[in-house]
Specification:
Distance between the termini: 40 Å
Helix content: under 10%
Radius of gyration: 13 Å
Order of helices and strands: EEEEEEEEEEE
Shape: globular
Largest sheet: 7 strands, mixed
Number of helices: 0
Strand content: over 45%
Structural class: mainly beta
Oligomer: single chain
Amino acid sequence: QAQLVESGGGSVQAGGSLRLSCVASGDIAGTDCMGWFREAPGKERRTVATLNDRNMTTYSESVKGRFTISKDDAKNTLYLQMNTLKPEDTAMYYCAASRHWSCLGGAASLYNYWGQGTQVFVSS
């Protein structure tokens, strides 16, 4: 069983930056993708950015050019650098890992392991 623990959320003004971190432990070997998802109140969980085991990345159109997903294998840590934040980026952000063959850019349903989430609030 894999464990994922997110951190780095908080409150920031529009235009600001935050960096989310996700430390992975346990049975994380063999996962094909890791990704960041977000869920705003009353809305479904949506894919923000994904990264596969060949370091290929995908981004949702709403964050492309502002967010960057990366990982440090030595630290078993996934990151999401978020710049030029907007109020519409306000959500609970989740880290996830997948063993599904088509996980890159995939929906939340393709991801097997989830963290507890970290809240991001962007004020205008």
